[in-house]
Design a protein that fits this description.
- By secondary structure, this protein is mostly helical.
- Helix content is 67%, strand content 0%.
- The chain contains five helices and no strands.
- Helix 1 packs parallel to helix 5, helix 2 crosses helix 5 and helix 4 packs antiparallel against helix 5.
Length: 138
Amino acid sequence: MFNLFGNERKSKRLKKDALTIIRSDEVAYRSAHLKACAAMVAEYLGTFLPATPKIRTGPRSAISLKQRHRDARRRRDQVQLTAATLSIIYLRAREIGPLGAPTCEIIDNAMERWTGDPDAAPDAPPDPTRASASLTPK
């Protein structure tokens, strides 16, 4: 019961982080970058989703994904950095359960959009830095 509010907070944070990363990449990079990133996210999730949580070390553990993230940051490889970050967010959202489902859906939609036709005008995800219009009183 005490972890319920912590999970809600984690869910909101993961959703905001995913939206920020997706929005910044869509604004800053070309379609080739987005396609490469989507392919790498699919590869990472294909590798790490079937892995059981009991696997602590090895090429299919979450620790390996964090090491790939760290290496990409050191090498300034933006494609791998974005892919590793979105994969980590996706895996953490899946750990939360139903509260993390919207975050997983946001990442899935972005990957579909990036692999399809990234040059097409996307349905702009909401800006995480602004409050939603539905919260304002009328």
